[in-house]
């Protein structure tokens, strides 16, 4: 398993390429912009895209979806139904048809398994994706912080419950957030005020 991070779009959103070198299959996580650069990296790596995985539907995480659809016909775009229901506004722009995924679902990318954890709070349909030792946390958990809850559909209580759930996962994981730098779950348990508050709740 190989993971590459590409800061994309005007907000520098972290787009991740989850690659299985044994089968040359890949998934694109949160393509927020710069479709050409994403496609160029995938071509350079010799990867075939099997899925586009969205942690949530805010514009800065979906900005390249339409262009990727044109370049990758037939590749499914996965999104939680609670966010799919909000598509059509400025902050949740339309992106075309999506395939629903939800808590407990497992997808395959080559020989890799991606498990879906529903982690609402930043948006109602926010998910965290678990692949190997990596947690793609979207805008739920950041290094030293958490996602905003003052946008439409946000909930402070819900995101604390989601943080508590992540913090209670057994063992340690790479934390690969939608913005800012990567971290580890153990580091966040020790130093992230919001995660510590959630775990005390």
Key terms:
globular; 201 residues; alpha/beta; single chain; Metallo-beta-lactamase, Chain A; 31% strand; 7 helices
Please explain how this structure is put together:
By secondary structure, this protein is α/β, with parallel strands linked by helices. It is 26% helix and 31% strand. It has 7 helices and 14 strands. The strands form 3 sheets. Strands 1-2-3-4-5-6 form a 6-stranded mixed β-sheet. A 6-stranded mixed β-sheet has the order 7-8-9-10-13-14. Its cofactor is Zn(2+).
Q: Count of helices?
A: 7
Can you tell me the CATH topology? Metallo-beta-lactamase, Chain A
Unreliable residue runs: none
Report the average pLDDT across residues. 97
CATH architecture: 4-Layer Sandwich
Q: What is the number of independent domains?
A: 1
Percentage of residues in strands? 25-35%
Shape: globular
Helical coverage, percent range: 25-40%
By CATH reckoning, the class would read Alpha Beta
Distance N to C terminus: 35 Å
Largest sheet, strands/sense/barrel: 6 strands, mixed
Q: Rounded to an integer, what's the Rg over CA atoms? A: 16 Å
Helix/sheet category = alpha/beta
What is the H level of CATH, i.e. the homologous superfamily?
Ribonuclease Z/Hydroxyacylglutathione hydrolase-like
SS elements, strand count: 14
Q: What is the N-to-C succession of helices and strands? A: EEEHEHHEHEEEEEEEHEEHH
The largest beta-sheet arranges its strands as 1-2-3-4-5-6
Domain Metallo-beta-lactamase: 12-179
InterPro entries: MBL_Glyoxalase_II, Metallo-B-lactamas, RibonucZ/Hydroxyglut_hydro
Cofactor: Zn(2+)
Keywords: Hydrolase, Metal-binding, Zinc
């Amino acid at each position: 398993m190989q993971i590459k991070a590409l800061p994309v779009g005007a907000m520098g959103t972290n787009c991740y390429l989850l690659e299985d070198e044994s089968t040359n299959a890949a998934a694109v996580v949160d393509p927020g912009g710069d479709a050409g650069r994403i496609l160029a990296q995938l071509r350079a790596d010799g990867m075939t895209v099997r899925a586009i995985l969205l942690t949530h539907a805010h514009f800065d995480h979906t900005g390249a979806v339409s262009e990727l659809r044109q370049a990758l016909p037939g590749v499914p775009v996965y999104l939680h139904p609670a966010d799919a229901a909000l598509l059509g506004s400025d902050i949740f722009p339309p992106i075309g048809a999506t395939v629903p995924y939800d808590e407990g679902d497992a997808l395959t990318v080559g020989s890799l398994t991606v498990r879906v954890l529903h982690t609402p709070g930043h948006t109602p349909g926010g998910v965290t994706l678990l692949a190997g030792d990596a947690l793609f946390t979207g805008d739920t958990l950041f290094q030293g912080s958490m996602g905003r809850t003052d946008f439409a559909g946000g909930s402070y209580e819900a995101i604390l419950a989601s943080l508590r759930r992540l913090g209670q996962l057994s063992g340690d994981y790479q934390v690969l957030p939608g913005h800012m730098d990567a971290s580890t779950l153990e580091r966040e348990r020790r130093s992230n005020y919001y995660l510590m508050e959630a775990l005390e709740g």
